[in-house]
Amino acid sequence: MQDPIIWADSHCHLDQLDLNPFDQQLEKFFERAKSVGVRYFLDVCIDTDNLDAVCAAAATYPFVWCSIGIHPNTELSEEVTVDTLCEWANRPKVVAIGETGLDYYRSEGNLDWQRDRFRQHIRAAIQLQKPLIVHSRDANEDTIQILREEKAGQVGGVLHCFAGDLPMAQAAIDLGFYISFSGVLTFKNARNLQDIARVLPLEYLLVETDSPYLAPMPHRGKPNYPDFVHYIGEKLAGLQELSVEKVAQQTTENFFKLFKLERWR
Ligand SMILES: [Zn+2]
Ligand SMILES: [Zn+2]
Fold first, then answer.
1. Distance 160 CA to ligand 1 centre (A)
2. CA-CA distances (angstroms) from residue 72 to 46, 112, 152?
3. pLDDT digit string, tens, across residues 24-61
4. Which residues have CB atoms below 5 A from the ion given as ligand 1?
5. Residue 226 CA to ligand 2 centre (angstroms)
């Protein structure tokens, strides 16, 4: 008998899903996800406001893990320090630091604070020996430069919702980072991204929904849920001319390897 197809959503925001009442519906949602083979989830923190919710979901469900960090576009009254990040990371099932990074698309003006926040996260990740979840938008060169300067290759991580170019992807892989594709990969106008996905080695690729944002085809423009990750994996399989089974198996294995999780079988 063939192994069942099993997917991991390497980046989602469970606390922001459109579910009501939340706890009951979340339980039902996981059943639905299981029925399409989506079995593992990384719930990603973006703010001090959702830190508790993210950690609670991971503490409740054995198949959910979480990250801690402050998104580059989040406004804070007081900046986070390495010490604060390390303290948050003591909570159960925190397996990564982020999402952190640079976003020159949504923030304007002098962005020294954003670069400094990114460096704090990298330093915390190195201190904790945990991988980084990196968000990068319109900041390809600076992202790679800061990762290099801070020696982030010691812990590695993932460039999530990848939207850079091929040199950026290759530089990140050289540093020991994975590249994660979101629903954007399924969009008709994402030709450049699809060309990149065609040539990158599967051993360094992950799939994610970044839900509730960026629903893949055929749900584009509607609310996004982590079980839609299979559409992204199927698209990737088509681009790489590999079987869906192979892409599911390898990306799930990559997920377990990167976040140093127990083998699931
Ligand atoms: Zn992001
Ligand atoms: Zn995100």
1. 6
2. 8, 11, 17
3. 899 999 999 999 999 999 999 999 999 999 999 999 99
4. 99, 135
5. 12
